[in-house]
Amino acid sequence: MKRWRKNVDVHQVTDAKPSLTSDIHRREIRYLVQMGIRTVCLILAVVVPVPWPFRLLFIAGAVFLPYIAVIGANERGEPAPPPTFQDPEANQSEIPLHRREIGS
What we know:
Blueprint: H1 20-46, H2 52-74
């Protein structure tokens, strides 16, 4: 049997990025876990009688974890690479990478 196309790109479901809903859910869970760790650090710094080096470590965790948690919660997966136009065999009917997400 004769092949009509030489190079056929096959896109698989496993190549797809996670949905926006699952990405938001993952970031929410991560944020809540980090805020839980911050709460534990705050309680340990105030309530538990530990030496000052440990107390300072707990205070630093309570102060800096919110910043780290917010930065991580606002992060949206991997950025799409910029489109390249050097490939002469590029499929012109394909949706560009920066336009594939619905609602962008």
